[in-house]
Amino acid sequence: MKASYDVVIVGGAVIGSSVAYFLAANPDFAGSVLVVERDPTYRFAATSLSAASIRVQFSNPINVKISQFGSAFIRDFARTMQVTGEAPPDLNFHKGGYLFLAATPEQEQTLRENHAVQRACGADVVLWGPEDLSRAFPHLNVADVRLASYGQSSEGWFSNTGLMNGFRAKARELGVDYVTDEVVAITRTGARVASVTLKSGAVVGAGTVVNASGPRAALTARMAGLDVPVEPRKRTLFVFDCATTPEGSATVNEGRLPLMIDPTGVFCRPEGRYFLTGCPPVEDPAADWDDFEPRYEEFEDIIWPALADRSPAFEAIKVVNRWAGHYDFNVLDHNLIVGRHPEVTNFIFANGFSGHGLQQGPAAGRGVAELITYGGFRTLDLSEVGYERVLENRPFLEKAVI
Questions:
Q1: Could you give the domains of the chain?
Q2: Looking at residue 259, what is its pLDDT?
Q3: pLDDT the model gives residue 63
Q4: φ/ψ of residue 329, rounded to 5
Q5: pLDDT computed for residue 397 by the predictor
Q6: Which DSSP string corresponds to 271-319?
Q7: How many helices (H) and strands (E) does the chain have?
Q8: d(CA 349, CA 378)
Q9: Which terminus of the chain is more solvent-facing, meaning fewer CB atoms within 10 Å of its CB: N or C?
């Protein structure tokens, strides 16, 4: 580790390592990069505990385009991220698609409005009535369904740690330094960040600091005398076995079932021989930084009743695993914050992904790298999701948040 770096990234999971990779891979960037990660096991990182899926079914064009780039990047990941002398990384991508179900007039209208945006962006998404839905997925009870939205391509799920480790390995090969340590202070000189102090006692000069510290983003920002409306919110995931699995029964996508979002908010997807499921919590307070105790009651009280109503195949199921992770939850509008602080311009935010960090990581990393290298966005303009909206208390509207 050197005494100073052009860029210091706080947090080495998928967002921080994506930024590091896109900087190091850009021939127009000639600077040095340090990634500081407090936990090299990444055991409790939002990345590691994520459901790791990607969709283009959003209501805002910028979010659709972010995921379109993410999908293309994941598709080419093995070639792009191959490290010399090692096997190409395999993300084990499952092209299952997303299936949104609407049971009320309001939900139907939202799906139709979202679909118009998605199609305008070139997304391969179709709308189905109950009959089409039943033909595609015969196991489903469609009696209450008014409309369904199904992503026919560019959607699915993949290895969360595979994405993170691929970025990390390639960034290292390209010259990025990683250190296991913790940023405990950030020194400013007027309107500029000057250095970071590590728990080990080292003081490292920094030309630019990137806040990629996930659910701890607010703690990092406060060290620089700044604020970001991000806090940890707990989400519990359950893996269940099914007495009679409906996987393989679909008449589309080679029989594979999608990630289904029920009108109740419960979601479910196949996961090998099992299924993965979760739901929005009834109460959603900020979680303690170290609280990873699952909300066990959600399965019996919310998830199982909804799934049993949706499919007879889900009446006889049992939980075989469960865990809780944290969203880096943006309390302003549940959307990513990517951009410079307008006053402390060498402090850059890459925070508040609110459960979408894995799928939005490639585009966010590329965008931050462009800001540092060129002083502005070159490919996808992310200014709509910049920090200015936080200061102006101007939420960025996205209706398709799950």
A1: 4-56+160-229+332-391 (3.50.50.60), 98-152+232-330 (3.30.9.10)
A2: 98
A3: 96
A4: -85, 120
A5: 86
A6: ETTEEEEE---SS-PBPPTT-----THHIIIIIHHHHHHH-GGGSSEEE
A7: 11, 18
A8: 18
A9: N
Distance from C-alpha of 151 to C-alpha of 56, rounded to nearest angstrom:
8
Q: How many residues are recorded in the chain?
A: 402
Nearest to 204 by CA among 170, 174, 172, 179: 179
pLDDT at 400: 64
Largest CA-CA distance found in the chain, in angstroms, rounded:
65
Nearest CA among 227, 224, 229 for reference residue 192: 224
Q: Are 167 and 20 in contact (CB under 8 A)?
A: yes
pLDDT along the chain (402 residues), means of 10: 96 97 98 96 91 95 97 95 94 96 97 97 98 98 98 96 96 98 97 98 98 97 98 97 96 97 98 96 94 97 98 97 96 96 97 94 98 98 97 88 66
Show the tokens assigned to 179.
Answer: 């250190």
Query: Is 379 exposed, middle or buried (CB count within 10 Å of its CB: 0-12, 13-18, 19+)?
Result: exposed
Please give the pLDDT value at position 180.
Answer: 98
Distance of CA 159 to the CA centre of its chain: 12
* Separation CA 340–CA 334 (nearest Å): 19
